[in-house]
Structures are given as structure tokens and as C-alpha cells.
Amino acid sequence: MSTLVINDLHVSVETDQGTKHILKGVDLTLEQGSIHAIMGPNGSGKSTLAYTIAGHPKYHVESGSVKLDGEEVLDMSVDARARAGIFLAMQYPVEIPGVTVSNFLRTAKTAIDGEAPALRPWLKEIRGSMEALRMDKTFAERNVNEGFSGGEKKRHEILQLELLKPRFAVLDETDSGLDVDALKIVSEGVNRAKANTGLGVLLITHYTRILRYIHPDFVHVFVDGRVAEEGGPELADRLENEGYDRYLTGTSVG
Amino acid sequence: MSAVTSPQPPVLAAAGQHGNTAHSDGGWALVPVQTRSERFTSVDPAAFDAVTGLEADWKLTPVAIVRPLIDGVLDGSPYQYSSTETEGTSLEWVDRSDVRVGAAGMPEEKASANAWSTFEKALSITLSGEETAHVTVNRSALGGHARAAHTLITAKPNSNATVVLQNSGSALLSENVEIVVEDGANLTVISVQEWDGSAVHLASHFARVGRDARLKHIVVSLGGKVVRVNPSVHLVEAGADGQLFGLYFADAGQHLEQRVYVHHVAPNTISRVNYKGALNGAGARTVWVGDVLIGPDAAGTDSYEANRNLVLSEGTRADSIPNLEIECGDIVGAGHASATGRFDDEHLFYLQARGIPEDKARRLVVLGFLTEIIQKIGKGDLESRLLEAIEIELGGVAA
């Protein structure tokens, strides 16, 4: 059983106004096979946490650690983190002109596994996952994210999650911009991946809507760069009714 | 109201103010404003002034290297080539007196006129079948002495064909290629430059596109010391469509240039120009000039031109100069875009976040960037061969 342990993580980012401290001491432990929801108001640092775990160069780690089974993730390159089993489903995946989805998926799978997948089973697996996510067959020959709708981009992220089989997945606002049908399809994909591979999920969201389809074991409320409250699924219900005001009054006076 | 003293600009030394003195780039101030279609043309090299290398036409080209093609004596005799052809096509050497010579255009510069005045026979390619026909002409044994060449490509009415001009080996070549696309024809011309590292090649392509006819013209320049291919396409009848694409990859010390000209003469004509280049290594140099002229009678013109360059290392230079002249008020659209830049780091992050190592991710991005043009070729065997050639070029790209 793998664990991902985030310990006293402080992260800053350079802006035009100077260095801005965003994460101010995050502690979080994820076990494989469990689903943790991170909820919080805009600007509380949820996405920063996601991109820091994945290793985006924009975010500067001031102190703290992120350990995967005792190994320091923060010392790894972005691609080494992915090969170690960490996956980030992005909120705004970029378009990559001229690189087809099928070429991209095969290249990524080869990199993660260290060897090219056997052709026939691989094609069958892609086809199966695409069908389950209600993606058209022509999708595979389109260029990565180019001209994809918001919903198509999210499905494409979850397709990768299913195919690359990471140990931990960070889902950064995967629910944003999805209508209810697409939300269900995407959620089913996440639940399927978890059932098949025993994935651990860090589900980052502003709204409780997606939690109707992906049931969290733990809920962490993120306010001003740290975890303000933690609890079980009942905490999400409370947020649904009360919103984040309760936390904000104490932290951002004026 | 209080008086406000506006700050006085600092007094500059006489020569210090930007824009205050004539530029040193060849005295452009002396060149009168001139419509693109009114350039001097002649088949006689002596009718052109001596080339100093400061002319607008030449100032971005390494004139010292191409000098033998501008002023030297050229061998205009027929050369060896090999070809593959399908039905509905013919290939033959024809005399200078052939009526098709001069049907598509006239030289606009001295090296082009030098070639025009010295070729002995023109290689004529005629396409007549309505079923899709293919011709590939391979030139790989031109040799290192100064040569002239002339090619005539004629697409008969309603014909449908692809012509590939495949160049490799050594060369010191100045040539003219005339392309006539008759009414209703659909012609693709692909000129591939995979010359040896010492080759020097100047080419002018002249095209006339007829009523409801379509020309797809693709320039792929990968190999050669100095390669300059200048296509000019005249959309002379209503409904003519010109699609001009280009792909180039300049390595250290390589100069790859293309000066593209699209002339909308007739109403309801369409043009699309898209050239993409990559530069890698010290002294890698590319030039793209894109002229579009929409003439007074070209109502309903729909035109767009773009050039994008991806810079992969220090020490490179890419010139990208779009020019748009519009003499007609009633058009559908005319636009241009030019961008030269480094990698988008977000592309790298996305690919690396999927486990793909940085060097491989870089190559994937460059290949993807250039693939857009390869995908226009529409000829599977050539597409896959060129992709391989580009992957080999990418072998030299540092991680």
C-alpha cells in the first residue's frame, strides 16, 4: 500500500507584484485506494498544491516535503514524478499542435512502463476506455486538445488516467465547465480507474456537485494556503449548506 | 489652473535618435513606394543593375555565396534525372522556342534572368488525366558546377495531379519553374530540397491559376548550404485558389530563404499561405517574406498568410516579413500573422507530466509543430519519408 505524505509544505510564486506566498504549511497524508476531497474558496491555494505535486516550474517550494513511500518527490523531475506514479489531471490542458492523441498516448505509456505496449491489447484497451468515456473513434487521430471542447478536454484527461494507471491522481477542478451528463461520465471514469487499480485520489474542487458522483472518504477544507478543517463526507454536506463564509471571516479581515 | 511644465526630452547627440537618420540597411529611403506587381522584369540579365547585396531583394541573402549564379556563366544543357509517372502525364525536353516558355511569369531578379537566358532545353511536365496522376522528378546528379534549369508544368483543364520535384546531391543551381494551372484543374506541386551540405540553389517559381482551378504549392527545404525558393502565384481568373505551404529546418550554418508572392488579380479568388520553420545551431538562418497583393479587380478576395518559426538554440536568426497590399475595397478577408519564438514551456510540462522525458518531449513538440505542413502533402509515402528526414534533423537538437 503506497502513501503520499505532504509535510509542512510552503510554496511561493513570482508575480509582477513580487514574491507571493501561497501555501503556508500544508500537511496531508493520502493512502492508496482512498479519495480525499480538497475544497476551498478561490485563491486558497488548491491548484498551487496540485501543480506543486506535479512539479510545475512556476511554483517555488520554500520548505517542506512531499514523500511517496518515503521517497522525496520534490527532488524528482516532472517526468520522473509521473513515472513514479503521480498523475495530474489538469484544469486547462494545453493544445499540442501536430501531435495526435494516439501518438501521444502511446509515447506516454511507453515512457511510464519503460517499454512499448503490445499493439493489439493496447489498441483494444484504448478503444474500450474511449467507448466508456463516450469519446468518438476519430478522437484518436485528432491533435492533442486541439479544438477540443471543455468537456472533451476533461474526458481526454480521464482517458489518460485510465490508461496510464498511476498510483495517485490529483484532479484539479475536473468538474469545472462540465454539464451534468459529462460530469457523470467523467466521474464514472475516475471511479472505474479506482476500482481497477486501487488508485488514491486527491480531488480538488470548489463545488460539492462532483462529490455526488465521486464519494470522498475524507474532506479537507483549504483556506489561505493551509488546511483549516478536516473531516469525513459529512463536512462536504455542511459546506454545501453553509459555504465558505465561516472560514473566510477569520482569515481575510478587511 | 496651475501651469504644468512638460518635461523636455533630453537632447540627444545628432546621430543618437532612433529613426532620425536614414537606416543603414541599404538606403531604403531611396526606394520609391512601389506596388508589388510593378517590379522590373526581364529575361536579360544585363538589363538588371549589378547586384551589390544591398538591394531589398538580396539584402537578406548571402550574396557572396550565390554570386556565381548571379553573374557567372551557367551550364544550360539538359541534365540527368530519373522519374516515376502514372497515366495521364508526360515528360519531355522542349526547345526554348516552345510557346509555353514565359507563359507563367518573367524573372524579377538577375540570377533568375541569368538562368532564363542560358537554359538550352526546358523539362516539360504535362498533366491531362482527370484521375489523380503522380509525377516525381528526382534530380540527384546535377554536380557542383554552375547550372541553369527551366521547368514547365502544365495542368490541362480539369486535370488532377501531384508533381514532386525531389532534389538531392550536390548543386550550384539557378532555375525557373513555370506552372500553369488551366481552368478547373487541381494541381499540387511539391519541391523538396534535401541537397548536400555544400549545395547552393536559387529557384523562382511562377504560377498562373485559371478559372475555378486550384494550386497547392509546397516548399520543403531541409538540406543545402544556401537554398532560396521564391514562389509567385497569380490568381488570374475568377474562383482561382492558391494554397502555399512551406516547411524548413535550418541547421548550423545553413541559410534557407523563401520569398512568397500571391497576386489576387481576378474576383472571388482565395489564397492561404502558411510557412513554418525551425532553427537549430549557430548561424542557422531563415528568411521568409510574404507579399500579398489584392488588385483593384479582385473583389471578394479571401486571403490569409502566416509564418511561424521555432527557435531551438542560441545563435540563430529568423527574418519574417509579411506584406499586404490591398487595392480593392470589397473583399471577404485579408490577414497575416508572424511569430518567432522558443518552446512553449507549458507544452513541455504537459508532456513531461505524462512521464515523457524532456528531450523526447521537445522532439515531439517540434515534430508536431512542423507536421501541420507535412499533413498538407496528402501523399502518404512522401509524408512518412519527410517525417523521418525531420526526425533525423531533430537528432541534433539538444535536450
UniProtKB/TrEMBL annotation, chain A:
The keyword Nucleotide-binding applies. GO terms for molecular function: ATP binding; ATP hydrolysis activity. Signal peptide: none annotated. The keyword Ribonucleoprotein does not apply. Keywords: ATP-binding, Nucleotide-binding. InterPro entries: AAA+_ATPase, ABC_transporter-like_ATP-bd, FeS-cluster_ATPase_SufC, P-loop_NTPase. Residues 4-249 form the ABC transporter domain. It comes from the Bacteria. Belongs to the ABC transporter superfamily. Ycf16 family. PANTHER family: ABC TRANSPORTER I FAMILY MEMBER 6, CHLOROPLASTIC (PTHR43204). This is Iron-regulated ABC transporter ATPase subunit SufC. It comes from Glaciihabitans tibetensis.
TrEMBL record, chain B:
It comes from the Bacteria. Belongs to the iron-sulfur cluster assembly SufBD family. PANTHER family: PROTEIN ABCI7, CHLOROPLASTIC. It comes from Glaciihabitans tibetensis. InterPro entries: Fe-S_cluster_assembly_SufBD, SUF_FeS_clus_asmbl_SufBD_core, SUF_FeS_clus_asmbl_SufBD_sf, SUF_FeS_clus_asmbl_SufD. This is Iron-regulated ABC transporter permease protein SufD. Residues 1-27 are annotated as: Disordered. The lineage of its organism: Bacteria, Bacillati, Actinomycetota, Actinomycetes, Micrococcales. Residues 145-369 form the SUF system FeS cluster assembly SufBD core domain. One of its GO terms (biological process) is iron-sulfur cluster assembly. It holds the Pfam family SUFBD_core.
